[in-house]
Backbone:
């Protein structure tokens, strides 16, 4: 990968994270695929066949869930810290970017 491609990749990452908060998701390896748990949103669960699919599903599902809460007038909790989350042997922690307008945060 050349320098130009690396710079483009960095710009894409910065653009994806612009104006977004990062929430944690726990991916749990299962016999087939990955279960996705959102520690701060304990009523939300998702699934992906691969880690890439799980990540894309997590972004979509979490954003939709947050949008529904906002539509109901529910304030969104601020993201937790990694130190507050305990993982088991078959779990991994991932940051999921979502857009939450500032006036909707707790």
Residues:
């Amino acid at each position: 990968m050349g320098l130009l491609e690396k710079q483009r990749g960095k710009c894409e990452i910065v653009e994806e994270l612009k104006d977004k908060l990062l929430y944690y998701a726990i991916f749990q390896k299962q016999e087939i695929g990955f279960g996705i748990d959102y520690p701060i949103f304990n009523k939300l669960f998702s699934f992906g066949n691969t880690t890439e699919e799980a990540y894309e599903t997590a972004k979509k599902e979490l954003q939709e869930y947050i949008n529904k809460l906002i539509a109901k007038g529910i304030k969104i909790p601020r993201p937790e810290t990694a130190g507050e989350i305990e993982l088991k042997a078959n779990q991994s922690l991932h940051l999921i970017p979502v857009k939450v307008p500032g006036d909707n945060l707790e």
Q: What stands out?
A: The first helix runs from residue 3 to 17. The radius of gyration is 15 Å. Helices lie at 3-17, 51-71. The beta strands are 21-29, 34-37, 45-48, 91-98.
